[in-house]
Amino acid sequence: MDEVLGKPTMISRVLLRLLFLSFTLNVGLVSRLIYEYDHERGSSSLHTTDAEEKQSYTEFCLGEEASKKTRESTTMSTAAADHEAYVSESSPSLSTEAEEDGKEKVVNLDHGDPTMYEQFWQNMGDKSMVVISGWQSMSYFSDIGNICWFLEPEFAKEVRRLHQLVGNAVTRDHHIVVGTGSTQLFQAALYALSSSGAFEPVNVVSAAPYYSSYPSVTDYLKSGLYKWAGDAYSFKGDEPYIELVTSPNNPDGFMRQAVVNRNGGVVVHDLAYYWPHYTPITYLANHDIMLFTVSKCTGHAGTRIGWALVKDKEIAKKMTKFIELNTIGVSKDSQLRAAKILQVVSDSCEHLNSREDSKNFFRHASRLMAERWDRLRDAVRQSGLFSLPEFMPESCNYFGEANTPHPAFAWSKCEGGIEDCESFLRGYNIITRSGKHFGAEAKYVRISMLDREQTFNLFVKRLSNISL
Amino acid sequence: MDEVLGKPTMISRVLLRLLFLSFTLNVGLVSRLIYEYDHERGSSSLHTTDAEEKQSYTEFCLGEEASKKTRESTTMSTAAADHEAYVSESSPSLSTEAEEDGKEKVVNLDHGDPTMYEQFWQNMGDKSMVVISGWQSMSYFSDIGNICWFLEPEFAKEVRRLHQLVGNAVTRDHHIVVGTGSTQLFQAALYALSSSGAFEPVNVVSAAPYYSSYPSVTDYLKSGLYKWAGDAYSFKGDEPYIELVTSPNNPDGFMRQAVVNRNGGVVVHDLAYYWPHYTPITYLANHDIMLFTVSKCTGHAGTRIGWALVKDKEIAKKMTKFIELNTIGVSKDSQLRAAKILQVVSDSCEHLNSREDSKNFFRHASRLMAERWDRLRDAVRQSGLFSLPEFMPESCNYFGEANTPHPAFAWSKCEGGIEDCESFLRGYNIITRSGKHFGAEAKYVRISMLDREQTFNLFVKRLSNISL
């Protein structure tokens, strides 16, 4: 209910207590009903698939040829989702399903759908629930006093609070621009940093291996403002450029810095993965343009909310203008939900280094990631199929201890003379993304570490049985 | 609560009754607290404005020169909003404020912010409330079996149901593509209908007066796929083209048909205003691409949800691809909320022509629009300042009676030799949008009819006192 109540006055604080007493009577029933409804919804979603209509999904992250397998796999992982979200780990039906691996089930780890966090949020229960009345947030406008006029003040407040607590980025003296995910903000930055009067489109570069969506998202509209110019390492000449620095990097998880460092260039920092569960927080980022998203921070990819921290006022204005022209602002409902989610994450920070520190979101997630990476490395040792990147522990300013990075993706290189790693794994019904989409060799694949427990279990089990 | 409960099983139906009994105890307190919170929030939003930071908003719909006035006006209308949403019409404080008009208050009717519907939705109370748990809709995917893989099945179901009830558009044999408002869907359609292999960008045309955003939204990225080519009436030559047909038209409210009708052309129908409260439903639309949005249908502009009904499967796939590249899908939270809102509107249709037919959303809204148009025409008669478009009554298939159109905008022509109507009205602190943005003369202005009651009252009062 907190979302509706907000910051109550003296009177309403009293009313809030009364309401809470009465409301607790309902909680048991509510959660029971949530279970009923979603269990139903989950299972029904398994039966509504229509073979004739399924090609579109493959266009998201995948080549057409992987279409059929992907659809099967996603159907499976939808099933897994519904089980995991509402059935305890010890459920016999689930464990039986996990044991038997007939290899015919497709394991899809191509895209970074962060569904591994569902369990944490289910454990949070009503704390992370939002309630939105029919008459709320109907206007186009959120905060007319702000450069970003569609930014919900509550969301902005929680963004600043979380960065303050984690210590991963400066928000003071930066403007916040909210976006429909960081993909929209990336395009807003390109628009803001390019000049409509320029004779030639500005070059957009990133050091390989770079995020596989950068080329297509830069070029799909054949814009006269900017164009994809490939690997930053091989960018020559003295033309103006925009360099994208993803740190930690997608796909390989290493911390990054700009590599071109020339006059007439500007840098956009994509810090989507610069959170304590993926990498040690080693410095307080204070770049001109920094992009973040709830998808990778809290796992709420379906909410489509990202934010940019922007130092220069005119750039913030131009990014806001892009989002105005592109989608006339950003959903208020999603901003309200994201505000609530970030608030719960910030509140959970109080448990850090306490006896209940598994209630701390970052501690919980960082243990999950560490455990998954250990299991992956074990499986890889058994099969000898891959080589994986090695990371050194570093002191994390958030956890106050030395931590090893546990990236959201495993950037894996096939050994034993396998030239096309993606095809090789597809032979085992394991869908990954080929290195060639990242400006690297086909020997490499990117493997998501963020999928549901059941999918990840099936993956390591199958992997450990592959021997060269 | 319905959103969480969904379609309960036998067991949960019983639980639902128990829950409802217990929950009703809270309703009084909840609504009281909502009032407390929002009243607070409203008034505080009046004090947080910072003069130095306010230019950005003017970029939405307005020229820079109107900046200051617009900001003042919006501050006012924010104040009005908070009053109107939580204080009864008969509140003395409100009526006093409405009576006195010192002319120094800016009345901003430039943009079509559909806040007039807030009152209806407040009256709906909990019926239109959505509750979203922290673990819901976390994945990127909604319906893997669908061409539009990020379309929430519940939203799709309610879209089809509403069109079926209203009879304004065919949904059978059409694919639904959901978008972040119809602005994103408009760009998705341009992307889907243009060819990346074409030597020249395809011409995008619309008959003047056309929607003022079409030129800028078509050209802001200087795309090599499509380019704005102006008024469809003056489009000559045999190059390929895309014609945008807005019907009823924004700004003038008249029903429209394609005007170019040549080979090598395709038509996109923007039917955002083809609903019974704006115009009689005279035919069942069955075009290849039809765009709709909740902003203008139910007033939920802040939710940023629109939908396209698309006949051709390949076009639907390409539109889906655009939205995938642009924002990686559409917020699940907003789709769930929009589904709930559309469900309430459809449910309210049962009251049509009953004794309680003011509970029918379209009847309620259509009476409001008719009453506003009457008051506008009275004020115009008194001042003699404008001429307004005249509409003939037509038989409405939805209401089952003859109705006169009452468009969302008043397309007004200044008389008495006034050449620049927008500037003239700004002299009276009335902000409108000049005809020149719509490919028409500066003698014309577009005036929003959808703003909050208090703003509209102030407008007609002030207008009736202007005499030539």
Explained architecture:
The structure is a homodimer of 468-residue chains. The first copy, chain A, has three domains: 2-83; 106-124 and 357-464, Aspartate Aminotransferase, domain 1, CATH 3.90.1150.10; 134-350, Aspartate Aminotransferase, domain 2 (3-Layer(aba) Sandwich), CATH 3.40.640. In chain A, the strands form four sheets. The first copy, chain A, has a seven-stranded mixed β-sheet. In chain A, strands 10-13-16-15 form a four-stranded antiparallel β-sheet. Chain A has a two-stranded parallel ribbon with strand order 1-14. Chain A has 468 residues and is of the alpha/beta class. Chain A starts with a helix and ends with a helix. In chain A, 40% of the residues lie in helices and 14% in strands. The model of chain A is unreliable at 1-12, 14-59 and 61-99 (pLDDT under 50). The interface between A and B is large, with 122 and 122 residues. Strand 2 of chain A pairs antiparallel with strand 2 (130-132) of chain B, so a sheet runs across the interface. Chains A, B: Residues 107-466 form the Alliinase C-terminal domain. Chains A, B: Residues 78-102 are annotated as: Disordered. Chains A, B: Keywords: Pyridoxal phosphate.
